[in-house]
Amino acid sequence: xxxxxxxxxxxxxxxxxxxxxxxxxxxxxxxxxxxxxxxxxxxxxxxxxxxxxxxxxxxxxxxxxxxxxxxxxxxxxxxxxxxxxxxxxxxxxxxxxxxxxxxxxxxxxxxxxxxxxxxxxxxxxxxxxxxxxxxxxxxxxxxxxxxxxxx
Length: 151
Hints:
By secondary structure, the chain is α/β, with parallel strands linked by helices. The chain has helices at about 15-25, 35-40, 90-100; strands at about 1-5, 30, 50-55, 65-70, 75-80, 105, 115-120, 120-125, 135-140, 145. The chain is globular.
């Protein structure tokens, strides 16, 4: 089983990143944009934990990609900030992008609102905004993905 800490929208709250990592002890951190430089600074405090990040609408100078496809313990995930997929209007474009990439789940931020749901056959997860104290811990195991608080 792989524990994945999902973070988004830190907006300068660097200490909150380290706090979330210490509380969850993840195997991997996925940062979904809006202040990628925050996670780059914070990762100095947890050098042994890999970090994957995408850029958000507040990261115009970042070299981070706009989206990623991650394969973790048999689960295939699409990760994006969500602004380019119009997630404040609809989750359709996000779900289609994930499906086209062969992913069964999509991770997104941008709205600052935590969300767990489905669109067609794609599971959708938004951790909410880290700057408001929100994050999400996912567990991947043999191709299955679930939120740590799910049974």
